[in-house]
Structure formats: structure tokens, C-alpha cells
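User: Could you check the structure of this?
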Amino acid sequence: MKKKLYYLIGALIVGVLLVESCIVPFAPPEVASADRFLVVDGFLNTGGKDSSRIQLGYTQVVSNKNTFLTELKATVTVEGDKGSTFTFTEIGKGLYRLAPRTFNEAEQFRVRVKTVGKKEYVSDYEAVKQTPPIESITYKIADDKSGVYFYVNSQDPLNKTGYYRWRFEETYEYHTPFFSSFEVKNKEIVDRLVSINRCWKTEKPATILLASTTKLSKDVVREFPIVFVPATSGKLIDKYSILVKQIGLTAAGFEYWNALSKTTETTGSLFDPQPSQVTGNVKCVTNPQELVFGFFSAYTPQEKRIFVAPYLGVSRTCMNGDTLSAADAIKSTDLIITEYLPEGARVPKYLMASPDCLDCRLGGGTIVRPTFWQ
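Assistant: Sure, the predicted C-alpha cells are below.
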């Protein structure tokens, strides 16, 4: 087992920095053919308003840059120590969902996974952890206008939380330099009825943010740094929103996420290649010697959102493209900015520009305004 574990750790941390073209990467057989191990990522949402989700994936070697492999068609259930059972529904890509419902918070819960390969995995029983509400999210613009710092404030008057974890989502509005008034449909130039100039983009960083108040006289978190958003990112030019999710952890859960944060600082998420052994509270029933990664918990997350409009950063600039006839505009790979009638002409011309200067969707966003947007 020790030899196998050494191979696993080697497989998860090996990487070669090519500083000269004559250097040949070294990939020993043990690293290239390292075993895959199940990763169970998720929790039981006991709040009754939001669904619970469990993600099943597999570890991979550093050299594998592809999307992580997932476990499909598994049977995922959550069991209470007083006899309750809840079955998750597969929704695709290794993700399993349980609809919102109320739970007996006096129960302890565990997750059980049965794969199509006849393997069975089960976690330890975990008590339901209450999470106090977020008091506020504050921000500060850097003195040199280089970006914005965001902080979270919270406290538990009952002094029962002690361990905290935060996740956050960023949503920002952005615009293209030019507005497209016309489009080509069925080889004809027509008015553009839906604007593609204004977009919203949401990002969900995998940063692991943790704090402990167990050594403090009061269970209070003040000005904990969530993220620094640089002005150069382009996220602060118009309006920016951050949604912070707060989670109360058990001592074991905090220990797990703290260890994981140290091993993912250079990788980014639970499903990225792991540089050391961080297992968790899930075990393989059919083969107790098999490594399993992940930590199952039961809690009610709390969240809070704020909007800011610091107008920091420099908007992108674009150059006008060609001025084309209707026939040429229809054939062009560029998009139409507008039409105009040259002096003395009877037929309009069309001012063009490259698509990325007109279609904000090419920046990864959507033209559908988020329902929460203010």
C-alpha cells in the first residue's frame, strides 16, 4: 500500500518546466498510468429552500489537461441515523441533485454512493451544522485605483460556529465598443432587434476561504478578505456584483478544507490534480484499501450580495473596418455597425467592424439580464 501511495502522490505532483527546447519531459510509467480515485464533492442543504447537490468525479495526473472524468448512472442516497433516506436524481455530467426539503436537524446524516461498477462508498455520519447569517459585505477601493478589495463580516451570538468557510460568485456587466444596428438574415440586411452590445458574465472561482474564531473570546469575524478585483480585469468598468456564501463547518470539516486549501493553491479546485493525499470522511465499503477523496457535510449556507459601480479600468477600443456595399456586407465575416448614405448616392453603404468589437457574447457572457441584476 505504501508503494502504491508513493506512486499516487508522484502522479499527482509531477510536472516539468521546459526552460529550453532541448529538455525532454520525464514521465515514469507509474506517473503516466496512475490509478483513478473517486472524488465526492457536495453537501446536504438542510435549509429547506435550496437543493442539495453531489458531484462525483475522479482524480487525474498532472499531465492530463482534459476535463475531469465523472461517475455516471450511480445511485446516490443520504441516510439519517434515525432511519430516514433520501435519493438523489442524476442531472448529468456526474452531478446528482436532491430537491429542497426539510430535515430533522436532530439527526446525523451520511452519503452512500453505489456505482455501475458495483463499488460502494459511504461517508461518516455528520451532525447538522448551523450557519449564522452574514452581517455585511464591505469593500475598499485601492488608494492607487488599481482595484477593489472585498471583505465579509459575521458573528454568532451563541458562540457555536467557530469554523467558517466562504465561497463567492462574481457577476459583472460589460459592453462592446460599437453597437450593431443591423444583421444579415437569409442573405438580407435587416434591423437587429436584439442588442448584442451589452452582456453579463458570471464567474465562480474555486478559491478556498477559511477562518477560525475558536481562539477568540467571541465568535466574531471582522473584515475577512474575500477577493481583490484588479482594475485590469475589466470587471469594474461598469457595474460589478459579488455574491458571498457562508458555511459553518465542523472541526473535522475545517481540518479537511484547510488541508485541501494548502494542496490546491496552485491547482484551483477539488477535481484538479492533487499534490498530496487529502482524503476526507468518505470510505470505500467494497475495498477498504481504496483511497477516496472528498468530505460530506450537512448544513444550511447563508449568502449575501452587493453591487458596486467603481468605474475602474480602461474600456477596450476598436477601429472601424471597411465600408462595404450591401452585396459585400452580406458576404463579409465582419458585423455591421450601421448604414449611411454617401453624398449623392441612392444606395446605402455599410460600416463594418470585427465581431469581437460588436458582439459581447464572444467575451463569454450572455445578453440575458440576470434576474437579480439591479
